[in-house]
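Possible race condition, two jobs.
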Amino acid sequence: MNVSEGLEIHHDGDLPARSGIGSSSSFTVGLLHALYAQEGRMVSKRKLAIDAIHIEQEMIKENVGSQDQIIAAFGGLNKIEFSNEHHFEISPVTISQDRLQNLENHLMLFFSGFTRIASKIAQDQVSKIKNNVSELQTMRSMVEEAITILNGNGDLTDFGKLLHESWQLKKNLSNKVSNTHIDHVYDMACKAGAIGGKILGLVVVVLFCFC
């Protein structure tokens, strides 16, 4: 940012570090936004996302994806399509307020109690991409199915079932995606009535329940 004079940056976080829900990308986007504002510039959401991706992937050399930075910069419920390494399209998922509220009413978020370094897990997944083409293609097709469910008027239970199917596939991508503790928590939740769920960064468990 070419800051040429003294600058003190103070950061307060309400979430534990390495919580697995994109807090590092949110921090990067927020920091960039503040530094641009200091220069009197109001940059676009797209530029904030691209700059944050550059910082994390190129400058810090983290093995991270690009979705967290985009989500943090744009906000909202969106479908993100990547056509190549540096180009993406954002399509808002437009569902009624009542249906969105119904969806949120059946989602539960849990902290597993421990943290991890996302870069190491992502590196292992990337190294095994060629061995997981089938799983990745199936998971990609689930995106359109999920949007169809959300945009429709049918039973949202189908969305919960889709979460479960996606999580089973994701666990096949790498043996570092889950562990015995997470598997136990997930199984206990399903026995207690959860229809499906997934793990966000191996730390936070999101469950779709009718309780």
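Job #2 (started ~2 s after job #1):
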Amino acid sequence: MSILNAFDLSTEGILLPQHLAPKIEGFPEVAILTFNESTVKAAVEAHGGDRIGEFNAGSVFPIYRLNYNGKHVAVARTLIGGAGSAALLEEIISKGARKIIFFGSCGALDAALLRGHLIIPTSAYRDEGTSYHYAPPEDDYIEIATANRLSEIFSELEIPHVCGRTWTTDALYRETRGNTEKRRAEGCITVEQECASVVAVGKFRGVEVYQFLYAADSLAGEEWDRRGVAIELRADRDRCMEIALEVALKIQ
């Protein structure tokens, strides 16, 4: 059976999120998920926080509650890749989150996107498997309903950014020249591994998923360009966490 036939609205899942992640009373409405443990720890150290739960889907990651400018926000590390990040998104929704902010790095398909540039994806090409279990297969791209509001917030905060399509793929080492050129021709300016998956989960579960990216490596030239060093990327991640916390205040 083709993956295009995987979407099933007629029957319910057997293993449900609430089996592993029951609701937590008083869980923050807004949660921030990112892909680096040190970034989460730095936020907890900078703003203070208490551990209020953990993820269970294959990896045990703590979930913290921060009091940021008088508002409670949940912060946690998630898994790289569409399937893993979607599973942990399911869990944090089950625990009580209704608005979730994701941020992480991406590969630049546009040479104008230098390292550290911020991007708000407007739609995601579904070159992965998870989204086909949460959304019908009619469209190759899944639209991101929160993109305009997030762009407005960035503008209110005077944060330079660009908006554009992204290419979500779970085949990191099969981002071929041919496929890269096809996606670029369709308007994709970035490539990453999670956006289509988490947006599909959010739509299916009726919650708001906001995502922004920061440019890391580049696939815009003749050869792959690593760009930057670890300490610079860490600075980008920490800056993005502070931005995510400010966004959290705006969407509550």
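The chain has seven helices and ten strands.
Logs attached separately.
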